[in-house]
Amino acid sequence: MPRKPGESSSIVKKQKFTKIYNAARPVRHSFYDTSQWKRIREWFRDLYPLCQVCEENGIVRESQVVDHIVPIESGGAMADGSNLQALCFTCHNRKHFAMSDKTQGRAV
Ligand SMILES: [Zn+2]
């Protein structure tokens, strides 16, 4: 993919990942494409630049995802800061993998 002047390969990779990640989401998650969510996400990551789960475990790692503590599909508030947490990709994937195991009836 051609890059714009000054655009680093890490930005291109992040944009590609985000595009694939969003495309895999169910339609009900179109909230994540709204400017409201993008503003909330940027505000929250500015507030919490480190992964909150890693930080609790004494690890310093950049936050990469703003996650809904109670998922929207489970009735969690979409735009309420008290339902958000800043996570790294590893912690985010660990949480959602564990949640999908629970919903599929497997032991975690
Ligand atoms: Zn983490």
Q: How would you characterize the overall build of this protein?
A:
The protein is mostly helical and 108 residues long. The chain has one domain (9-103). 44% of the residues lie in helices and 7% in strands. A two-stranded antiparallel ribbon has the order 1-2. It is globular and about 45 Å long. The mean pLDDT is 84. The structure holds zinc ion (ZN). Zinc ion is lined by residues 51, 53-54, 61, 87-88, 90-91.
Secondary structure blueprint with pairings:
Blueprint: H1 9-23, H2 35-47, H3 52-56, E1 65-68, E2 84-87, H4 89-103
Antiparallel strand pairs: 1-2
The structure holds zinc ion (ZN).
What descriptive keywords fit this protein?
108 residues; mainly alpha; two-stranded antiparallel sheet; 4 helices; 7% strand; binds zinc ion
**Runs with pLDDT <50, length 5+?**
none
What class, by secondary structure content? Answer: mainly alpha
**Coarse morphology:** globular
Strand order of the largest sheet: 1-2
Strand proportion, as a percent range, falls in 5-15%
What's the order of the H and E elements? HHHEEH
State the distance separating the first and last CA atoms.
40 Å
The total of beta strands comes to 2
Percent helix range: 40-55%
The kinds of small molecule bound in this structure are: zinc ion
* Domains, number: 1
Looking at how many chains there are and whether they match, the oligomeric state comes to single chain
Instruction: Look at the structure and give the mean pLDDT.
Output: 84
Can you count the helices? 4
Largest sheet: 2 strands, antiparallel
Q: How much is the radius of gyration in Å?
A: 15 Å
